[in-house]
Write the structure tokens for this entry.
Amino acid sequence: MSDPLRILVVEDEALILMQIEMMLKEAGHSVVGTAMTAAEAIAQIEACRPELVLIDLRLADGSSGLEVAQAIRERDGITAAFMTANARQLSEEMEGATAVIAKPFSEAVLEDALAYLKACVRRPPPSEPVPNGMRISAECLARFDAMRH
């Protein structure tokens, strides 16, 4: 893949983190950092300047992925997406994130979601429909619609 996305993965379960990291690398992307807590993630955002941050909702030490999404929302040039089994806990606005990918997901679902998110990051608005297994925030959908018109 030419020009891979620079991705930070925020996940508190080590085996799941390793699996996601492997899937991302196999899909041709660059994992520039990993974190297991909100504080680690926010520090990594500063240190490695990712384009995309994939965030679990419930993190180690009782912290929340919502804290990470809020920190990202205050920075330009970084897109946040939740990867969680608790997707229904998120509002339509997804607490500032662009999207949510429901766990568990297959490699094919992740690859489709990454292709869509790459378009969100690099050349918005995406021309493809939202892939199965993924939900986009109402705010982002409205912004993409306005870009098309």
